[in-house]
From TrEMBL:
Biased composition (Basic and acidic residues): 74-100
Source organism: Penicillium malachiteum
Transmembrane segments: 250-272
Protein name as catalogued: Uncharacterized protein
Residue segments, region Disordered: 67-135
Gene Ontology CC: one annotated term: membrane
């Protein structure tokens, strides 16, 4: 790994492909980004003499040359200073012998014995200052040697390692996010909800949930004991009383809501389908059947208009379908809908506007 690898990691893949094309890198289109970065790093390092003059690669070769100049710190050995030894030469003094009678006086000289190779020099004596300095240098050299065995040789190596680990972590997170499939599911949900059918279905489901909650009472079942250890209070459990399904108090309001808000509007939207007729008449005879099948079987504009008229007539003016439903059923169904009949009219207005907007987009 060279010191130019972090520079290549910071580039986008189109920039790396451009460098690969410029430097004649072989089979670069089969690599992903990590493999392309490693291949370019080796290719540019091996062919430094060829591409170093290229101005677009100057930063890469500047980093590469900067790391080559910086080497690991030299481990210096401890140097012990030795105080110079000044050899003092003592003057040679002749030895005089006393003259004795009857004997001739003799004069002997003591000459120093010199040896070329066998001369032994005494070990120099260290002064206290030089001994302390040498001890400090010895300890310092030992500390430097032990620290250099564990520390990285240069800060550039640390930076490269951090950049490499960051790149691996980012690539791992991107791979995990892609493999989870959240993006595909979100796009599928968005495509499903981006239609007028989905909006109308949501309105109907909300109305169904509220009317069932109003007509089906909750029955007390039991109470769970409290758990003081985890500060959990006693909780009373209630379940829906399904026996109400056997009474007319449930079916009369529910059937009134079903006929008014869903049944009759769907029947009218199926037989009075303006969008289906327009799609079938605008195409040739060979494509009418297929084009008609692609469009909705129920006209949303007719559905919303009929539903708004029935809700206003039944819930606002208490029209009882020629005494088929009692005033109790009308009030119960009206109160079960959140916002009552005014909310139904508001939802139908939204549906009409959505239908017209969808038709405009389809024509444009």
């Amino acid at each position: 790994m060279s010191s130019g690898l972090p520079y290549l990691n910071k580039l986008r893949k189109p920039e790396l492909v451009e460098i690969a094309e410029k430097t004649d890198l072989q089979e670069y289109d089969e690599y992903n980004k990590g493999e392309l970065v490693a291949a370019l790093d080796k290719h540019l390092s091996d062919n430094r003499a060829i591409f170093s003059s290229d101005s677009s690669l100057s930063e890469f070769y500047t980093r590469l040359a900067g790391t080559n100049r910086r080497g690991s710190p030299v481990k210096r050995e401890a140097r012990v200073e030795v105080s110079p030894l000044l050899e003092k030469k003592t003057p040679k003094t002749p030895v005089l012998e006393k003259k004795t009678p009857g004997r001739r006086s003799t004069k002997t000289k003591e000459e120093p014995i010199e040896s070329d190779d066998a001369a032994v020099t005494p070990a120099p004596k260290k002064t206290p200052a030089s001994a302390s300095r040498s001890t400090v240098r010895s300890v310092r050299s030992v500390v430097v040697e032990s620290a250099s065995a564990y520390l990285p040789p240069s800060p550039a190596v640390v930076t490269d390692a951090i950049d490499q680990q960051t790149t691996k972590m980012r690539e791992g997170l991107e791979s995990a996010w892609t493999a989870s499939g959240i993006i595909e599911r979100s796009h599928a949900l968005r495509s499903t909800l981006s239609s007028l059918k989905a909006v109308e279905t949501i309105f109907v489901l909300l109305e169904t949930g509220f009317i069932l909650a109003e007509l089906v009472p909750m029955r007390y079942l039991t109470t769970t004991p409290a758990v003081p250890a985890v500060s959990l209070p006693a909780i009373s459990l209630r379940v829906p009383d399904l026996f109400v399904l056997l009474t007319a108090n449930f079916w009369a309001p529910f059937m009134l809501w079903f006929v008014t808000n869903l049944g009759l509007p769907l029947v009218a939207a199926y037989f009075i389908n303006l969008s289906w007729q327009a799609a079938a008449s605008s195409q040739g005879p060979l494509r009418r059947q297929r084009q008609a099948a692609e469009h909705a079987s129920f006209d949303p504009l007719t559905f919303n208009i009929v539903k708004a008229l029935l809700a206003y007539k039944v819930y606002a003016h208490h029209w009882d379908y020629a005494s088929l439903f009692s005033p109790y059923s009308i009030k119960k169904a009206n109160f079960a809908i959140p916002g009552q009949w005014k909310a139904v009219l508001t939802g139908n207005a939204i549906g009409v506007i959505g239908t017209l907007y969808e038709a405009i987009l389809r024509r444009s």
